[in-house]
Amino acid sequence: MQPSQMSTLFSRKRSREDDSDGQSDPEWRVTGVAPTKKTRTDDEDAPGQRQRDEEFWFEDGSVILVARNVEFRVYMRVLADHSPVFADMFSLPQPKSAATDRAHGCPIVPLEEDSPEDLRHVLRALLPRKGATFVHLDAHPPSTTYETIAAYLRLGHKYQVDTLFDQSLSYLKRYFTTDFDIWQQWLKHNQYQVPVEWGGHESKLFAIGVVNLARLAQCDALLPSALAVCCSSMPTSSSRDLHAPMGLKSG
């Protein structure tokens, strides 16, 4: 099933905004210039041009997910248990023209809009066991990177993995709080104004990504403190620097 068909058949329980620019590659760094999108070609989609993911290729897997040119052979049942979108997708009869891996007899599901990095983060959370704690809110400090949280929110929203989505949103609310006194107290011990595990000085610009994630989640409570951190970066960053890394649209 093609992604365009999937988006027609399945609607998100939560209303969402059409903000594809907010779903930028989580591995972008602050370079001041947004990476140029690579045009896909038929050669790139050919099986011979794809590579297996080293971490998520199980010989007894029942489905092959393809994110860009990376193949992930995993288990339908596990994905269906966590995601009603995948559950509905897998329950539909496959057309005769549907892609199948001839060597392994597995259906191939292209996830063209998802990055391999995002998918890898989510599979690490979903495959161990159902009902796992993906984000440890009580840890000090929680060992969770921005890339992980962003992947959980983006794909958790897209595929209705509510546990991933809800816990990640709670994580962001913990740091980008609406309580000014609590936020000010936290800033006294955090010069970078974002969770310490997100990195050093340049990690401040991850607040731009938080603005995008807040829009995706329709969580306005994150915006005041996230935008305040963005503004505090202005003296050392041009407007292009602030917009490019996380795909934040101006206006």
UniProtKB/TrEMBL annotation:
Coiled coil: none
Superkingdom, natural source: Eukaryota
Transmembrane intervals: none
SMART domains, sorted: BTB (SM00225)
BTB domain boundaries: 61-126
Region (Disordered): 1-53
Organism annotation: Lentinus tigrinus ALCF2SS1-6
Polar residues biased stretches: 1-10
Name assigned to this protein: BTB domain-containing protein
